[in-house]
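RECORD TYPE: protein structure
NAME: Dehalogenase
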Amino acid sequence: MIATLKGFTQQLVPVNSIKINAVTGGSGSPILLLHGWPETWWEWHHVMPLLAEHFSVVAMDLRGAGFSDCPLDGYDKATMARDAHEVMVALGHERYAVCGHDIGGMVALRLAAIYREAVTHLAVLDVPLPGWTQWEAMTARIWHFSFHMNRDLPERLIHGREYDYVSAFMAERFYDHSAFNPEDVEIYAKAMALPGRTRASMEWYRTLTADHAAALEYKKQPLEIPVLGLGGEQRFGAHMVSMLKEFASNVTGGSIERCSHYVADERPHEVAAALIDFLKAN
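PREDICTED:
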């Protein structure tokens, strides 16, 4: 169950009244990686060694996932952003880049909006963002948003069927199934089966109405740092740049070909290369 990556070390970092599992390696300027649902830091395990040749890499389990604590509350993206920032400060990184995928992308954007003196670069991968003008219309068409927002129901239906749910969910969002190791699904499913983790990760969605209202306010002060938006051409790739331009003035990016939602799993070399070019060019 415990996934390890050669050249990287794991530790529990006390922050914001909880403990966050952080995985670190490499050297150079720091970059923080934030995973999405239903994954853990392991989402980045193909990307991390490539980035570590150039940067100090930190990947963490979000509050409520993997080996991080799963308290009863604090799943709004501002609190989760504070978790992430305090992890970086505790590890000695006062200024850093951040890259988030899916829910982690929502946290990354909030992190950049709150900690403007700390975040040097922002990358967001394949996710609709609270505050986007098309937020309500887009999320109304994504079935799992409304399902996960239901109180108690998802936990009851998923309990004991974590592997079935996670494997079916991810399979629906892959373009190239041959690019994904089925053993990774087992890692994510076992992590979700840990006590409290299914409920906690559902809370990521139950705060989205409040997250959207908050984003409508902070987007009034556009980010001036370099921003990269990437997505799978079969998922949100076509929207990422225009979406992020609502929040920032300096946005580049686009679509990754032959790819759907799980870009770091399907196309890790393309993701790593894009991040390296982005960070070194700006």
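COMMENT: Residues 164 and 187 are 13 Å apart (CA to CA).
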